[in-house]
## 1
Amino acid sequence: MEINIQTGNEHKKIGQYLLENKEKFIHFWEEQIIVHHHKDNKELIIQNGYLMYEVVVNSILHEFSEQEIKSLAYKVAQERADANVNIGEFVYNINLGRSIIIKYVNLSGITAEELHPVFELINKQFDLFCYYAVSRYTEIINTKLQEKSLFITQTHKDRLAILGQMSSSFVHEFRNPLTSVMGFIKLLNHDYPNLPYLDVISKELEELKFRITQFLHTSKMDTLVESKYEEITIHLLIEEVIDFLYPSIVDRNIRVIPNINEEIKVNGDCNELKQVFLNLLMNAIDAVTDEENVREIKIDTILENHLVKIRISNNGPTINPEAIPYLFEPFFTTKKLGTGIGLFVCKNIVEKYLGQITCISNDHVTTFQITLPIKNN
Ligand SMILES: Nc1ncnc2c1ncn2[C@@H]1O[C@H](COP(=O)(O)OP(=O)(O)OP(=O)(O)O)[C@@H](O)[C@H]1O
Ligand SMILES: [Mg+2]
């Protein structure tokens, strides 16, 4: 950036005047600057004030140096960013310095004609200083943000990879014996219908199967299990899930109100879709459990062109709007014993069937909506 400097007599006069009144002007400035006592280092701000004053006087008396302004601006920007303070106050303080200099130089008795070119120089310096400091500050903050988000993404990926590896071996080791135990329990039940505790054992094993399947869906599910594509009647599937959850529904005194179109069929793997509804209903059950008034879960279906919208709503507490974008991310949980993979699994499965899952939550109701293509007859 080029600047035309005339180092005439007026420059000397004003430079000299500024040198003589340095302490006074900086003292005026110091009394008016904005300082955050808990964050800012006032000494440092004042030290920088002196440095800037020197740069200004130097350029009036001797030589204008853009490099000098730039270095000081970069130094201040780094300090502001390290202290994690807003750049607004800094811009205010620097402009305050400019006003004080201009105001008192105006009162110096030097003629307006003589002052004019020097004012231009002073303004130019302050403008450049602000420009360099704010640009640098923004750069530093942006880099910091990028590094942070890179770190989060990386840790996230690492955790997912570990979970994937764990799940694969875990699922292999547990699923096959579990399936055969469940088969033998069925046989026992058939051969000895009056044998006690079989129902309890079956129920517990079903729970275990749900958890194991959940892990299965966080790993490379397509390679581990082949999804069957069969015709699924939504209302039958949801009824099955409600039956399965019936003990917790009764235990927690929850009213479940299904309003499901009995005609609706979709194409998919029954176990996978069951996993989706289990997760959504279990979450809804958890959500209404703290509700002191009536605890209600509604299930509705809406047909729209070739799509079905399945809505699972509950009257539990509102989900914090800031949490909504993270609900479907793995490991996001607000529960003491939650793993935070339920909704992640739901999203994976629903998207596999070219569907969508969304959530809306307000003071009255929280709704999770799944949209799936319907099976045409
Ligand atoms: N119906 C709902 N009402 C309120 N908050 C909900 C509801 N469903 C999900 N959430 C919020 O979303 C978070 C994530 O749900 P998600 O099912 O993924 O995990 P989780 O239920 O915490 O654990 P798990 O892996 O055992 O399912 C929950 O911890 C809860 O904060
Ligand atoms: Mg859950």
## 2
Amino acid sequence: MVWQNWARTASADPEVVERPGNDAEVAAVVRWAAARGKRVRAVGAGHSFTDCAATDGVLLSLDAINRVEHVGAAGADGSREVRVGAGIRLRRLCSELAARGLALENMGDIDRQSIAGAISTGTHGTGARLGGLATQVRALRLVTANGEIVETSPTRRPDLFELARLGLGVAGVLTAVTLRAVPAFELEAHEAPMPLGEVLESLLEPDGLVDSHDHVELYWWPHTDVAQTKVNDRRSSGAGPLHPVRRLIDDEVLSNGALALTTGLCSAVGALTPAVNNVAARALTERRYRAASHRVFTSPRRVRFREMEYALPRQAVVPVLEEIRSWLGRSGENVPFPIEVRFAAADDVWLSTAHRRETAYIAVHQTRWLPFARYFRAVEAMMAEHAGRPHWGKLHRLRADDLRALYPRFDDALTTRDAVDPGRVFGNTYTERVFGD
Ligand SMILES: Cc1cc2nc3c(=O)[nH]c(=O)nc-3n(C[C@H](O)[C@H](O)[C@H](O)COP(=O)(O)OP(=O)(O)OC[C@H]3O[C@@H](n4cnc5c(N)ncnc54)[C@H](O)[C@@H]3O)c2cc1C
């Protein structure tokens, strides 16, 4: 079986593919592989843009380990710890939580990933007061390189916990994830096109758009002066009438049918891109709606694309957007895909892209019909000037030495890895590049 990831940027031909149904079966496969000198990688939904889950050894799919195992008692704030099988997809997780009056505090923009895959690459949503999914993890169960089943948390083997909660699977195969779930809530969404200049000005103000709302996201169409702002604010469930009708047109223009059409047209006739982007940006209208949080956070993504995303110190977001804008003007690069901007609070997860700094994310995309290398390299050079950290699951070219300079706890992560997997049972080409061996 040839395995391919979502963006079709990576493929590998694993020697063996296993679909274990419980921890003991995972442990048996790991022991079997280690005894024969074969390497092991776990795969979730294969939704990364890099080859992080690829292997020519044993590929483990945890799709069958996907149940809610335990729901803890409610804390003073109504939150509960929920333990789930590591292969559960976010879509099912959200509906299981909703059935219990619970929700994830923050999410990215799709729900196809597995919880293990999502935390292992530092998947995040947007919200200047909130962290990525790994910050919501309270405990983990995993199978280590010697086939042991181990429980870890901030108080039980805390170093292992750090590497396991965001470490591309190099600590072991995650089999269960305990998350902090919050009482279910609704989001009131306000989406509106705005002149780019006005948006950038507001990003510079201390109490501007980003700090005065719970979740703020921007889409800027290259070759235009228009950005679509997406602002979501929390409301407790049942706070008023619900408007469940999502912005169908906006979903189509930003992510689906209409985007497929416009990017296809622009790939064929590059000279049309500025005009098409202008039409697309102006097709997005102002609208408000309210729905359960996971329905507002996520939407379907049917158009395949390539993506690179970097985390920057928040104050760098405007200068970098200006640099990208100026480069696009100078280079004449054909970019029919919007650029996405999101925000996160500083956190303490060792390998989190928001580790110890207030963060802004800039993501550049390119349709798979057009070359992406020159564009992504130019943007990557700008990110380097501002100590940008690449998303672990999206395209980038950094290596261990570059990453060491960006993460104060990088060597702690490597030391922990040496202790739990000295033989590199859980290594692959990607981990060799980003961790050095
Ligand atoms: C359309 C699209 C939209 C996206 N939106 C966002 C977004 O809004 N925010 C964001 O931050 N990212 C986003 N991403 C990136 C995506 O969230 C990450 O790449 C995520 O890792 C994918 O999860 P997965 O289950 O597909 O993991 P995979 O790609 O299958 O695996 C990712 C990593 O996790 C490891 N892994 C998987 N399962 C286990 C396990 N059980 N134990 C140990 N290691 C394991 C793999 O070995 C690999 O290293 C998006 C990607 C796509 C394609």
## 3
Amino acid sequence: MTDQETPKCSHCGSEMKKWGVPADSTWGTEFFWVCFNDDCTYFKRGWDHMWKTQEVKASYRNSVHPTSGTQSPLPCWSYDALKDRIIED
Ligand SMILES: [Zn+2]
């Protein structure tokens, strides 16, 4: 999978990063492509949206399943959350 092209976030155009999936997950993949741009419109809008609808201080980052290409929101409770699982090539 190393020759795979890095996808770009459909919301901000940044290159996405590999994010290692927790071992006990049932997602059927070892990693997701995740946009870790803190200025991503998707991530920035998420804070307001979550506060208005759920009254929680949280947001989500845009993620893409590497084999199916399905986009889904990855819940995120702070700017630094999830970053410890980024896989740098
Ligand atoms: Zn983005």
## 4
Amino acid sequence: MTQKTAIVTGAARGIGLATTKQFLAEGRRVAMIDRDAEALMAEAGQLQNVLPVVCDVSQPEQVSAMIDEVATKFGRIDALVNNAGVADFGPIEETSFERWRTVMATNLDGVFLCSQAAVPHLKEVQGAIVNIASISGLRASTLRVAYGTSKAGVIQLTQQQAAELGEYGIRANCVAPGPVRTKLAMAVHSPEIIAAYHDAIPLNRYGSEDEIASVIVFLCSDKASYVTGQTIASDGGFQSTGVGLPALRV
Ligand SMILES: NC(=O)c1ccc[n+]([C@@H]2O[C@H](COP(=O)([O-])OP(=O)(O)OC[C@H]3O[C@@H](n4cnc5c(N)ncnc54)[C@H](O)[C@@H]3O)[C@@H](O)[C@H]2O)c1
């Protein structure tokens, strides 16, 4: 019961899978959560010290059962990484209420539900929450009325959690990734969007899953013991750039 643990949602692939592997490398046991049972079991089957749990984070009953199972089997929950997310880009007039709700259900409801259910266990060990937002939650753009708004909500939700849970020693922080070539991003990034991102990002490239995961793992660690309520953009400098006029480039 002394070995630290972490829960990672959306752990079957992409940033969540990379985060799982980095937690394992530093000696934690990891509960891998995903609604894609086939992909989850395939990845978990290749790893040691993991507990795969099939769960849709937007469903309150499933979340409650998942947290109970992890707490019972692990005996403690030291970190919760709310990483599961979906993307859906479209103009405001074409974003049906159903599409809006689908994005909000996973990206925002899921973070609220998993965090709320984990709090009693995080209190016991003064644990940490890391929520995954996006640069789309920091800066508005076209086509992201649902996705960008859900991610801005995640940033505010993180601050609410930090403000309220600090007295229990629970830290809550947020990571806002820039573009990473995962299945989620490649479904909505056309070749034109990829080229435009390269142009707008000072480091001139997409990030890797591991470059996002290392920030997440740091924020969960004791090295970040006095950091709470923060959003760290791991984005190659995208967020820090101001007016991106080509005429102002050197
Ligand atoms: N890839 C990027 O460019 C990028 C940029 C900014 C933010 N993000 C955010 O990073 C997070 C991870 O994204 P990724 O790029 O690794 O995506 P991904 O699609 O590769 O992985 C997401 C995982 O989440 C799971 N998932 C989705 N909805 C779920 C639900 N309701 N319940 C349980 N599991 C669910 C999927 O099955 C999948 O395994 C997301 O929150 C995403 O919004 C990604």
